[in-house]
Design a protein that fits this description.
This protein has about 180 residues and is of the alpha+beta class. The protein has 2 domains: about 50 residues, no CATH class; about 130 residues, Muramoyl-pentapeptide Carboxypeptidase, domain 2 (2-Layer Sandwich). Helix content is about 25%, strand content about 25%. Helix 2 packs across helix 4.
Length: about 180
């Protein structure tokens, strides 16, 4: 298997046709040659990676969230929107109705050197964030929860805050939100 990319975890060199895809702020696909057959034909797939901005935001999150997200990006393309929030950011989120909690009550509010125990993710497709694609958020949540379960990390999703697997009964829904339960 040969991998091309320009990020540390990808190795190799960047094919010229991929260079512009890899320079943005959000997730971008990277060429992954997965199999070479005996007749010299190859199976080629595009695999998303986290962009520079997503990696910077992810660095503000707890290592358990980082581990789950680094694995999830291999399955589905998304961007990391928000990790740690300071007081001003949290109060703004509260005023805009994006959070029900004041600072410092949210799991987004960690004090240095502690890292955020919450992260907001959004599906990414066709060069933009897919804010209105509920099904993509639900799929992303399934990927995240499955990976967390296999790693033994209790994870709560904002689309089902009460954790009863009914996506229609929560009074406050925050599809981008994931948080560690501990």
């Amino acid at each position: 298997m040969e991998v091309f990319g320009n990020q540390k975890n990808c190795g190799g060199s960047t094919p010229p046709q991929l260079g512009s895809w890899l320079e943005g702020d959000w997730s971008r696909p990277v060429l992954l040659v997965t199999k070479v057959f005996s007749n010299n034909q190859t199976e080629v797939k595009l695999m998303p990676i986290l962009g520079k901005r997503s990696l910077e935001v992810l660095a503000t999150c707890h290592p358990s969230l980082q581990m789950i997200i680094q694995e999830a990006i291999r399955v589905f393309d998304f961007t990391v929107v928000c990790g740690r929030r300071g007081e001003k950011e949290q109060e703004k989120a509260f005023r805009e109705g994006k959070s029900k909690l004041h600072y410092p009550e949210s799991k987004h509010n960690a004090e240095t050197p502690t890292l955020s125990k919450a992260v907001d993710l959004a599906p990414y497709r066709d060069g933009k964030i897919q804010w209105d694609d509920r099904e993509a958020f639900v799929f992303l949540a399934g990927v995240m929860k499955a990976i967390a379960m296999t790693k033994g990390v209790p994870l709560r999703w904002g689309g089902d805050f009460n954790r009863n697997d009914n996506l229609h009964d929560d009074k406050f829904v925050d599809y981008p939100h994931f948080e560690l339960e501990s």
